[in-house]
């Protein structure tokens, strides 16, 4: 296992180097060509080309689809026994390089984690590792990827624990440490320092500024919720704009180009802008903008930074919704640094107190990362590592915990897994739900059951209950939608009496427990508990399909448990 985790880490780290080098090479090449051609505001045009090329590659070479976001890793862990497609080992590198390298307003870290996870998963599949070890090697690839991308080995380990392996045993810790250390070592040996986000100067904590850090943490919590919700809304809107993927890409990237025209710092990952803010040189981010002549006006700069921070979620939503590939890790650092700068600069300009702008800028990154990804430990140690020390550990702990608490209050799930967790698809810390969620209702539901309609009579009810083992009868409308159900326990007191019963056929019909045939098993079990029943009717497009029972679900749960032990 130790040898395997190191080999996976080397593969993942080399993939990160290829990805970052390719993305930065694409960026340098396009900017060089544009400077030779002397094209004004070329940074507004490049994202359109990059997103269109990404869509073209996906359609022509990747079977028309590519999975985005760390949610795909969670699905692999919870529902697919740690198995990821082979194409993820190269698809993310190509597509995210084209998108982000040509100015798409997203990050490379999410593609990096998926690539690392795919290397770990496919290595384990090739050598026939069991489920537990396969999942561990998947996490090792993720840890190595994060460690390489930021030269932050501790953050790599913590990210794998907090986000991927919520239910981790002590034996998993050493492989994660080895993988992360290997990734960081390769980053030091090979990566150009300009590709890394790092701040190598002394940062110290003045306890007199504690109240302002608390304020930053509170604001970061609410900004996290704002960013996550607006991003999801924009991504969904543009993603459902048209069935024609190329037309959708043109419209979405065109809107992104307009934003970048007015706010050039939205171009690409935006790490250069973060460094300018941390050095209190924010005037540089107005370069090539319509406000470049105001780059010495502190209030104009503050307003520009504030608006840029607020619309970053729109830019990222347009990038990913229109067909580009990337992640939200870098945008969270972007928004956090801008928020930290705004808070510090506003305090300084009003004359309340002179607070260190650089400190607030880097601490703000931890605050947003914690709030958006619900990973406070990763946020704390990532920023501590990229700043070269632990001088800011106290404010990092303060802002990360406050931001996390507020964001968790309003958004139960983290940004990347919100949509799938809300559907009950992923709960990696709960083994029972993982096993239940592997059950596909569409494959196991029972179809053969006698039904009635509104034209039937009590005599028909008696006939079915007398001649079959059914203890409920679905009552359907003419269009096969469910009107209700006749439950044997409910009608038994009167149904088999003589004609003296004064009950009508309609009075025998009660409300039916119903869900879609594509619902997850966890949701079915929950409905059974709420309705105090042991069966649920299943529908497809509102039409009756069949039913599933509690005993049937538990039977398949036990089968999944046996398979897990065998694997």
Automatic annotation (TrEMBL):
Keywords: Chloride, Chloride channel, Ion channel, Ion transport, Membrane, Transmembrane, Transmembrane helix, Transport. It is a multi-pass membrane protein. One of its GO terms (cellular component) is chloride channel complex. Its main location: membrane. It is found in: Membrane. The chain crosses the membrane at residues 39-58, 136-161, 173-191, 211-230, 245-267, 299-320, 332-350, 362-384, 390-407. The keyword Membrane applies. Pfam families: Voltage_CLC (PF00654). One of its GO terms (molecular function) is chloride channel activity. This is Chloride channel protein, CIC family. It comes from Algoriella xinjiangensis.
């Amino acid at each position: 296992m130790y040898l395997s985790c190191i080999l996976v880490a080397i593969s993942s780290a080399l993939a990160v180097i290829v990805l970052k080098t390719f993305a930065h090479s694409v960026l340098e090449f396009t900017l060089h060509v544009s400077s030779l051609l002397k094209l004004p505001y070329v940074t507004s045009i490049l994202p359109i080309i990059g997103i269109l090329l990404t869509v073209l590659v996906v359609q022509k070479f990747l079977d028309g689809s590519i999975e985005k976001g760390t949610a795909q890793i969670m699905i692999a862990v919870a529902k697919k026994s740690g198995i990821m497609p082979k194409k993820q080992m190269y698809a993310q590198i190509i597509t995210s390089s084209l998108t982000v390298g040509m100015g798409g307003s997203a990050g490379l870290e999410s593609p990096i984690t998926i690539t690392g996870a795919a290397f770990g998963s496919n290595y384990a599949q090739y050598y026939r590792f069991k489920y537990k070890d396969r999942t561990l090697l998947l996490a090792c690839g993720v840890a190595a990827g994060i460690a390489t991308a930021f030269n932050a080995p501790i953050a790599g380990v913590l990210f794998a624990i907090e986000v991927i392996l919520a239910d981790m045993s002590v034996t998993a810790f050493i492989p994660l440490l080895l993988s992360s250390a290997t990734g960081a070592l390769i980053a030091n040996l090979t990566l150009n320092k300009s590709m890394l986000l790092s701040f190598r100067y002394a940062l110290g904590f003045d306890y007199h500024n504690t109240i302002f850090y608390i304020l930053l943490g509170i604001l970061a919590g609410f900004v996290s919720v704002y960013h996550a919700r607006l991003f999801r809304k924009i991504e969904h809107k543009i993603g459902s704009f048209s069935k024609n993927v190329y037309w959708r890409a043109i419209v979405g990237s065109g809107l992104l180009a307009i934003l970048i025209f007015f706010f050039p710092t939205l171009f690409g990952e935006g790490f250069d802008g973060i460094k300018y803010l941390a050095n209190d040189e924010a005037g540089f981010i107005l370069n090539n903008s319509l406000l470049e002549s105001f780059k010495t006006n502190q209030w104009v700069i503050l307003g520009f930074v504030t608006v840029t921070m607020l619309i970053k979620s729109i830019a990222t939503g347009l990038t990913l919704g229109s067909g580009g590939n990337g992640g939200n890790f870098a945008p969270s650092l972007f928004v956090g640094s801008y928020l930290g700068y705004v808070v510090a600069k506003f305090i300084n300009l009003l004359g309340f107190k002179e607070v260190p702008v650089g400190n607030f800028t880097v601490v703000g990154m931890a605050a947003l990362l914690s709030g958006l990804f619900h990973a406070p430990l990763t946020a704390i140690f990532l920023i501590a590592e990229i700043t070269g020390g632990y001088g800011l550990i106290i404010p990092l702990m303060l802002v990360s915990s406050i931001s996390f608490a507020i964001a968790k209050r309003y958004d139960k799930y983290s940004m990347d897994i919100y949509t799938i967790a809300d559907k009950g698809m992923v709960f990696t810390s709960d083994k029972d739900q993982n096993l239940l969620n592997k059950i596909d209702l569409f494959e196991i539901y029972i179809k053969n059951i006698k039904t009635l309609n509104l034209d039937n009579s009590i005599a028909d009810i008696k006939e079915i209950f007398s001649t079959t083992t059914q203890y409920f009868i679905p009552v359907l409308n003419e269009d096969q939608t469910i009107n209700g159900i006749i439950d044997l326990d409910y009608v038994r007191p009167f149904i088999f009496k003589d004609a003296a019963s004064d009950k009508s056929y309609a009075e025998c019909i009660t409300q039916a427990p119903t869900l879609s045939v594509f619902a997850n098993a966890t949701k079915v079990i929950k409905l059974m508990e709420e309705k105090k029943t042991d069966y649920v009717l299943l529908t497809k497009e509102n039409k009756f399909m069949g039913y599933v029972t509690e005993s049937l679900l538990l039977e398949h749960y036990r089968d999944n448990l046996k398979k897990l032990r065998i694997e």
